[in-house]
Design brief:
Layout lengths: L3 H9 L4 H18 L5 H7 L4 H4 L1 H24 L1 H19 L5 H29 L3 H28 L5 H20 L14 H5 L3 H28 L3 H30 L1 H21 L2 H28 L5 H29 L4 H19 L5 H4 L8 H9 L1
Helix pairs in contact: 1-8, 2-7, 2-8, 2-9, 5-6, 5-7, 5-15, 6-7, 6-9, 7-8, 7-15, 8-9, 8-12, 8-14, 11-14, 11-15, 11-16, 12-13, 12-14, 13-14, 13-16, 14-15
Subcellular location: Cell membrane
Organism: Streptomyces spinosisporus
Keywords: Membrane, Transmembrane, Transmembrane helix
Length: 408
């Protein structure tokens, strides 16, 4: 029997140039998130800053990203998806370039905030554009988007290591250049998208959160994102490796993230159902992070890479829940969901180094493990509210099929 996912994977490759241009720029946008991972210790040394100060690069970035989620739909529904993408890319090009010229941590943190605004405008609109223009329906579009996310997350640390080994400034200049290329590609290949019939107000994403299912997905994702970004922003200081070695570790992490988000997660959802997969993956992530915090250096490296598998699964399931659990338009639901969860991405880099200062190096990972379990608890307690989307992804195999799967 043909595997439907193999057929879907083949279909995913047959896309218009506009989709590939948007997906390519999305890869670079997601590269910007993990780009600084291998060079965090180098930035701290180069600007004579503490780990806590340098971690604010993530905090300012995601704090602005979270708030900007209320603005993205407002902007795109008025000027159109194409212009919103180009505006976001222009912001990233300017502020990534300026970040490379920073003379202090305060300047770098400020430029990262501007970068976060551009990334919010681009990333939130890119998903809607890809869904609207992709061949093969929304499922193929989401997989394509998750592929871009995974590839970007994998390549970001690698680019940061390769360029950052010479100077911590070079990765910022490299990102500005790549985003400028993305700007030109979208200008050339993406036609203006149809504007929605109704303009989005600034409060629409907040109103969308009045839906119990979307609010539950956002609350669970909030706790999960705290764990996710403790790994991403705090672990480089714990590993304390050269940019090349740290880049290699997070490249492996990103590769697992990409594989599990695009290939493994859909199969698990097909067999077990979304909510079981999400709850189980969050518990496993909690265990992995706890071992990471208390293990020796080799164990920490292995657990850091392994966490990419659980993060990849979670990202895919959360994205589908956020897009399908409520009756709100997808861009509005996505904005409300992201508004909530990105606050945790801003909080984790801020609190993790300070928790270490107040206690010891193990406790930030204990807190991260607890937040992952809390995310799973929300899924368990609020499973009825989340069932709207989950029903579409419940197991569709008979008992005989299940036995065959396990036997084979």
């Amino acid at each position: 029997m043909d595997d439907p996912f193999d057929a879907g994977a083949a279909g995913i490759l047959r896309q218009p140039k506009a989709v590939w241009a948007t997906a390519g720029a999305s890869v670079v946008a997601f590269m910007g998130i993990g780009l600084v991972d291998p060079i965090l210790p180098s930035i701290a040394k180069g600007l004579d800053a503490t780990a806590g100060q340098v971690s604010l690069l993530f905090t300012s970035y995601f704090l602005i990203t979270a708030v900007a989620m209320l603005v993205t739909g407002f902007v795109s529904s008025r000027i159109g998806g194409r212009r919103t993408l180009l505006l976001g890319l222009a912001f990233v090009v300017v502020f990534a370039g300026l970040a490379g010229t920073s003379g202090s941590v305060a300047e770098l943190v400020g430029f990262r905030a501007g970068w976060g605004l551009g990334n919010a405008l681009f990333v939130s609109t890119a998903l809607a554009v890809i869904v609207g223009a992709a061949a093969g329906g929304s499922a193929a579009a989401i997989l394509l988007y998750e592929s871009a996310l995974g590839l970007g997350m994998a390549c970001g640390p690698l680019l940061g290591a390769l360029l950052g080994n010479q100077s911590w400034r070079y990765p910022f200049f490299g990102t500005a250049f790549l985003m400028a290329v993305g700007f030109l590609c979208i200008t050339a290949f993406l036609k203006e998208q149809p504007k929605p019939a109704r303009r989005t107000s600034l409060l629409d994403p907040l109103r969308a959160l009045g839906h119990g299912g979307l609010a539950s997905a956002a609350a669970s994702a909030f706790f999960y994102n705290y764990t996710f970004f403790t790994v991403l922003a705090f672990t480089p200081f714990v590993l304390n490796m050269t940019p090349y070695r740290s880049g290699a570790v997070f490249f492996g992490w990103g590769v697992l993230l990409a594989i599990f988000s695009v290939l493994v997660a859909p199969r698990l959802q097909e067999r077990l159902g979304s909510l079981k997969v999400l709850g189980g993956s969050l518990v496993l992530l909690a265990a992995d992070v706890l071992v990471l915090g208390y293990g020796d250096h080799t164990t920490a490296v292995v657990c850091t890479i392994l966490s990419g598998a659980f993060i990849g699964v979670n990202n895919t399931v959360y994205t589908e829940l956020a897009l399908g659990v409520s009756d709100a338009p997808r861009p509005v639901a996505s904005a409300g969901y992201n508004f909530v969860r990105w606050f945790a991405a801003a909080a984790a880099p801020f609190f993790a180094p300070r928790i270490e200062e107040w206690t010891d190096i193990h406790v930030p990972f204990v807190v991260a493990a607890v937040t992952a379990v809390l995310g799973a608890a929300v899924v368990l307690v609020r499973r009825r509210s989340l069932t709207h989307e989950a029903e579409e992804l419940e197991p569709r195999h008979s008992a005989e099929d299940s036995v065959a799967v396990f036997a084979g």
